[in-house]
Amino acid sequence: MRSLTIEHEHCYRTRLEDFAASDSLLTNHYHSPMKAVRYDRFEGPLLLVDVPDPTPTPDGVVVKVRASGLCRSDWHGWKGHDADVRVPHVPGHEFAGTVVATGNAVRKWKQGDRITLPFSMGCGTCERCRAGDEQICDRYYQPGFTGWGSFAEYVALPYADVNLVRLPDAMTFTTAALLGCRFATAYRAVVGQGRTRPGEWVAVHGCGGVGLSATMIARALDARVIAIDITAEKLELANVCGAEVVIDAREVTDVTSAIREVTGGGAHVSIDALGSPATCRNSVLSLRKRGRHIQVGLLLGRESDPPVPMSQVIARELEIRGTHGLQAREYVGMLHLITNGRLHPEKLLGKTITLAQVGAELAAMDAFQSVGVTIAVLE
Ligand SMILES: [Zn+2]
Ligand SMILES: [Zn+2]
């Protein structure tokens, strides 16, 4: 496969057309204008509109989007809850696709490569990135937040050599889109930050996309999972994903005592996968001594600074850790667990929709209604 190097934006179109004419792979790709789901004001209409094709930065690529997941973070962005988002805006950050154009400084990628990427992309040069922590880069780029995202036919991405992840041949674009951001974040919570070992108890508070992902990942590591939620349907899914014990928080007088009883003294690792003052507190209090609490669920607005039972953190020598994303290099271990059949992210798929249906679906994402992840599949 030849690579397509773009040296000057002004000659971009001409060169692309030349290239398209000479390669059937591109004949139906990359036309102008493209379709994208855009909003021009917060909480305003989410419309499928024509916008100009993106062009790659020197260190970036343009990707033809093939599958893009809907996430509550997109909904929060549309509501105006995310300070990174500027209108007009195109949301979408959980996606996979094919590289169709590369900037002239890109070395590792070429047209035709099948890729996905972390939702928080590192610059590769700041202090954090040099330490290997691209997920908390000081100059992060988040498609769908700091820039236009993937509810579009094409998306431009900077920092390509640092962040793109090659898809295994056998992995579909839809499965790859299911990995970000919930699955990848859950993987870092369980594996990186939680340091979960075989045989340990992992308590998962909240069985939405992140919680179910964490359940599945912990099970794949031969840990024992206890899942907590207030919805019977989600607890059933937690069972399917490998939870050994499920607790309906409405049916017990004290969630943390119930967890300590089942686990013989408390969980080794406990994950707040929902993000609320109550689940955060329950997660910390459900740990055994020297247990690890991992905060994954976002706490927003008035709930962003909840009380934490710090006396117990001291007395029981607990660890409190956050998790923000997953570096591209850490995808290797996760993809390996999927390709060898230990992990099945496809179990998280709720339904597939078209790009034209994204706006209505996103606007309706205002409660904990959806079970499973909705993926927009593009031609
Ligand atoms: Zn950086
Ligand atoms: Zn997301």
Compile the SSE list and pairings.
Blueprint lengths: L4 E2 L5 H11 L1 H4 L6 E5 L8 E5 L9 E9 L2 H8 L14 E10 L10 E3 L10 H4 L23 E4 L2 H4 L1 E2 L6 H5 L1 H15 L7 E5 L3 H12 L3 E6 L2 H9 L4 E4 L6 H8 L4 E6 L4 H9 L1 E9 L14 H6 L3 E4 L8 H9 L9 E5 L4 H6 L9 E5 L2
Parallel strand pairs: 1-5, 9-10, 9-12, 10-11, 12-13, 13-14, 15-16
Antiparallel strand pairs: 2-3, 4-5, 4-7, 4-16, 5-6, 6-8
The chain binds zinc ion (ZN) (2 copies).
One zinc ion (ZN) binds next to loops.
Give a quick summary of the entry.
The protein has helices at residues 12-22, 24-27, 72-79, 127-130, 160-163, 173-177, 179-193, 209-220, 232-240, 255-262, 277-285, 310-315, 331-339, 358-363, and strands at residues 5-6, 34-38, 47-51, 61-69, 94-103, 114-116, 154-157, 165-166, 201-205, 224-229, 245-248, 267-272, 287-295, 319-322, 349-353, 373-377.
Structural class: alpha/beta
What average pLDDT do the residues reach?
A: 90
Uncertain regions: pLDDT < 50 for 5+ in a row? 1-29
Which distinct ligands sit in these coordinates? Answer: zinc ion
Computed Rg: 21 Å
Biggest β-sheet description: 8 strands, mixed
Q: Give the proportion of residues in helices.
A: 25-40%
Percent range for β-strand residues: 15-25%
Estimate the global geometry from the Cα principal axes. Answer: globular
Query: What letter string, H or E per element, gives the SSE order?
Result: EHHEEEHEEHEHEHHEHEHEHEHEHEHEHE
How far is the N terminus from the C terminus? Answer: 21 Å
